[in-house]
Amino acid sequence: DRIRKGTSKTREKLGVIEELFTYWNLDDADETLEELEDALIMSDFGPKTAFKIVDGIRDKVMAGQLKTGEQIRAELKASIASLLQQRGGSSELALPEAKPAVLLVVGVNGGGKTTTIGKLANKFASEGAKVVLAAGDTFRAAAAEQLEEWARRSGAEIVRAQGEKARPDTVLYQAVDTAVKSGADLVLCDTSGRLHTNWSLMDELAKCKRSITKRLPEAPHEVLLVLDGTTGLNMLNQAKEFNETAKEFNETVQLSGIILTKLDGTARGGAVVSVVDELGVPVKFVGVGEGIEDLQPFDPLSFVDALFP
Ligand code: GDP
Question: Taking every annotated instance into account, which residue ranges of this chain make up the domain SRP54-type proteins GTP-binding (predicted)?
């Protein structure tokens, strides 16, 4: 129900599409399909993804497999769900057998990175896990303070920079070291969201990743990109840029998942589908509010049902 509440604005926007199904005119299927494509684009599905979805539906309409608006609605839901499942792959976190699991969390400032780490810490701590937070954003003074507050609220331990000149990769190394020595289950690594250029940011993140691996060879187990859902297709471009820069770095910081925040405040939730489609990376969680409990594991089927109930 949280996901339904969190997607209410997007669902309202998709009302245009629901109307199409009600008045679906099979005599003029071409025009109606074009209207469907336009409506999907207007709902932030992105031209490429909208085209792909509608093309699949068009084939079935032409082959006489879909006859009523209701059938077409069902086909639309099924194709969005299968796209999310097949293009994205598993939405489950890849947690290792041996502890600790190390998650490296990256993303632009203001996207909700720190809040999301707080919510994740709370989720796992409330399930009984011992959680360590690593304050890896040493460039922004307030970042560690903010993380400290989340550590307090969730009951997690926090590892912060020692001294003015401590580097992010040193902090992350120490956090993983602390977790290994204390038998913690999970390390959540915060990182900086802004440097002078994408290149220098990626360079920094690559160092962070190497430093984690140096302490724990198979870690990090996930690299999660936090994206602000209210920015619609802009976040797609942000994620693409991240991926492109990562490739130039020989993919040392290859993304394993996306966390989409602020879905509750936006009608642009359709962008989830284009992000997964174009990047081929799964959404693993969605943020549906500012509260500590407002994080939902992403499930493609519930998401599609929430958009088209
Ligand atoms: P960071 O700079 O990426 O670490 O971003 P913050 O975690 O500081 O979050 C920026 C703002 O977004 C804060 O005001 C958060 O309360 C808000 N925020 C984060 N996640 C969500 C969400 O899922 N829903 C809503 N409505 N606000 C959120």
Answer: 282-295
